[in-house]
Write a structure and sequence with these properties.
Shape: globular
Radius of gyration: 17 Å
Distance between the termini: 24 Å
Number of strands: 10
Strand order of the largest sheet: 4-5-2-1-6-10-9
Largest sheet: 7 strands, mixed
Order of helices and strands: HEHEEHEEHHEHEEHEE
Low-confidence stretches: none
Length: 224
């Protein structure tokens, strides 16, 4: 298979309806494409071009705060994303902004970036969270080479519905923001031990109702 180019990615994004001026929340796997000319930077450039100068690109840039214990340290500006190379490229992009929630931070580029990321929500998916704001902005949710088990927005539904297989815990640790350290506690809706969640049936239900757009870019299956 030939290398995947910026033009290939842009064509695929246009085919599923992404337009200039919109907001997109992206979960991704770079390796799913096969070989991409220019790597993760090319993918980010294609996403930004598809959204245009008035659009906004958002990605989860989670680390492992919820597993680190009370001595953990999360740096808003420096702690890398563990959500893949595309996510980390978005986090480190010039003028990107990152939200201050250590457990589930997001990074954003574009006109709505500060509006989305300057939110000091106590729980991950509260009505004042970046995730809730993405819903208000009617953001696209794009899954690049990953399935619905990677769709963070489903956790928003779990928190709002207070599903019985999760329970509230307090996660405590040190947060560094612009060089200033503070010990903070975050309320986290943790899944019970032994519970395994499969969200793909939820995605399949969306597909059956015609609510999922699909494209193939290189070797990557893209859902939107």
């Amino acid at each position: 298979m030939p290398p995947v180019t910026l033009a290939d990615i842009l064509t695929g994004l246009r085919s599923i309806g992404i337009e200039c001026g919109e907001v997109a929340f992206v979960h991704s796997s770079l390796s799913s494409f096969g070989y991409v000319e220019g790597g993760a930077e090319t993918v980010v450039r294609a996403l930004l071009e598809a959204l245009g100068p008035d659009g906004t690109l958002v990605a989860p840039t989670f680390a492992d705060y919820f597993g680190g214990g009370p001595d953990q340290v999360w740096n808003r500006q420096k702690t890398p994303s563990r959500m893949g190379r595309i996510s980390e490229t978005i986090r480190t992009w010039p003028d990107a902004a990152r939200s201050p929630h250590a457990v589930h931070p997001v990074s954003a580029i574009g006109t709505q970036a500060k509006d989305i990321t300057e939110r000091f929500n106590v729980t991950d998916y509260a009505f004042d969270s970046p995730f809730s704001r993405l819903l208000e902005l009617n953001a696209w949710i794009i899954l690049i080479g990953v399935d619905f088990n990677s769709c963070t927005m489903i956790h928003l539904l779990e928190e709002r519905m207070r599903v019985p297989y999760r329970h509230w815990v307090d996660l405590k640790g040190c947060v560094v923001d612009a060089g200033e350290e503070a010990v903070k506690t975050f309320r986290f809706f943790r899944r019970a031990k032994g519970v395994s969640c499969d969200f793909n049936p939820f995605g399949q239900a969306l597909e059956r109702n015609g609510l999922v757009h699909k494209a193939t870019i290189g070797k990557s299956k893209v859902l939107c």
